[in-house]
């Protein structure tokens, strides 16, 4: 087992990082806060880089990559606080590829002409459900439906991170929207992909909050010296870095296991979500403390990344859900899929 990216994976990751550094600035994230939808012209540009079709099979104009490459890209999406529903669209695309490959949606998503959202058993809210072109809805009985926003009654709900456009979905299943039955295993794997993706984004968010705060500590002068010269500040930031470095291989392991459908994949994903969530939570608290009161004002960029971290910390199952899942697995009980929540 090699818990590191290959040369090709690093090249793709770096390409996405450079693109987002130029096309997803904090000003762009703020614009998404004010807009009705976070899906913008950047979605088509992401498609040209190959990002929107990363898990879509090549025969449907995608890249045909897997969870390891998706996780690498989502770390960069987190670093930039990318507002578009890249993870949700990837989870939906995976289900479409398995159960409705001929519906025509896959090539549209890969080309950036369509975006998808997903609602799995246990989820209360769907991201960008109103602006998405297709909604993939999994029910508790295992039925899988493919619908459009016109098939649903959508009610907007406000998130702590206002670039995440959340909706409740009132949906009445019909024979027209049903594409498959008895898909519980696939739905559980889709939930794992979602949890892994959230963990990967939390890694990127942690790194970005740390970078912002290190730079601030170098520039902020108090009593004639930069505050970063004080050991107490250094310890706060070093503790964040330690958490980040411990979480990184756990996320890599989860991506490795999920990509190969290993028996431990579910447990590994839960471990990744816990570790990445703890790292991001510590980063938010310590970085805010170093900044002081200015850090949580809307005028400061730090709050953009803190609020995304808070939102993703509970998305796709919070720490309590995943700890219970690990305990059930270790004690020999039948492990239930994580309960995604927002």
From TrEMBL:
Cofactor(s) for this UniProt protein: FAD
Domain of life per record: Bacteria
Keywords annotated in UniProt: FAD, Flavoprotein, Oxidoreductase
Acyl-CoA dehydrogenase/oxidase N-terminal domain: residues covered: 6-102
Recorded GO MF terms: acyl-CoA dehydrogenase activity; flavin adenine dinucleotide binding
Gene3D superfamilies: Acyl-CoA dehydrogenase/oxidase, N-terminal domain, Butyryl-CoA Dehydrogenase, subunit A, domain 3
InterPro entries given in the database record: AcylCo_DH-like_C, AcylCo_DH/oxidase_C, AcylCoA_DH/ox_N, AcylCoA_DH/ox_N_sf, AcylCoA_DH/oxidase_NM_dom_sf
Acyl-CoA dehydrogenase/oxidase C-terminal domain location: 191-330
Family statement drawn from the similarity comment of this UniProt entry: Belongs to the acyl-CoA dehydrogenase family.
Protein name: Acyl-CoA dehydrogenase
């Amino acid at each position: 087992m090699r818990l590191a990216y290959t040369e090709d994976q690093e090249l793709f990751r770096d390409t996405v990082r450079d693109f987002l550094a130029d096309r997803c600035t904090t000003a762009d994230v703020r614009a998404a806060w004010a807009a009705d939808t976070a899906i913008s012209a950047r979605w088509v540009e992401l498609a040209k880089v190959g990002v929107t079709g990363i898990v879509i099979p090549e025969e449907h104009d995608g890249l045909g990559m897997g969870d390891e490459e998706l996780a690498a890209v989502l770390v960069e999406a987190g670093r930039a606080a990318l507002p578009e529903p890249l993870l949700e669209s990837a989870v939906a695309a995976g289900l479409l590829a398995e159960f409705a490959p001929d519906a025509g949606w896959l090539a549209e998503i890969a080309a950036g002409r369509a975006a998808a959202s997903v609602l799995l058993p246990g989820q209360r809210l769907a991201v960008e459900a109103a602006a998405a072109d297709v909604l993939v809805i999994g029910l508790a009985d295992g039925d899988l439906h493919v619908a459009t926003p016109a098939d649903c009654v959508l009610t907007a709900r406000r998130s702590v991170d206002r670039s995440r456009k959340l909706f409740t979905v009132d949906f009445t299943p019909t024979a027209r929207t049903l594409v498959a039955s008895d898909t519980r295993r696939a739905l559980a794997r889709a939930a794992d992909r979602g949890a892994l993706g959230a963990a990967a984004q939390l890694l990127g968010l942690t790194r970005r909050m740390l970078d912002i705060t290190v730079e601030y500590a170098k520039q902020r002068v108090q009593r004639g010296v930069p505050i970063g010269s004080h050991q107490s500040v250094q310890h706060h930031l070093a503790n964040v870095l330690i958490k980040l470095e411990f979480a990184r291989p756990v996320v890599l392991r989860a991506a490795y296991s999920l990509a190969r459908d290993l028996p431990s994949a579910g447990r590994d994903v839960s471990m990744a979500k816990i570790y990445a969530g703890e790292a991001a939570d510590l980063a938010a608290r310590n970085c805010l403390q170093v900044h002081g009161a200015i850090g949580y004002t809307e005028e400061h960029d730090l709050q953009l990344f803190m609020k995304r971290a808070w939102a993703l910390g509970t998305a796709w199952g919070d720490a309590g859900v995943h700890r219970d899942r690990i305990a059930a697995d270790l004690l020999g009980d039948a492990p239930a899929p994580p309960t995604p929540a927002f």
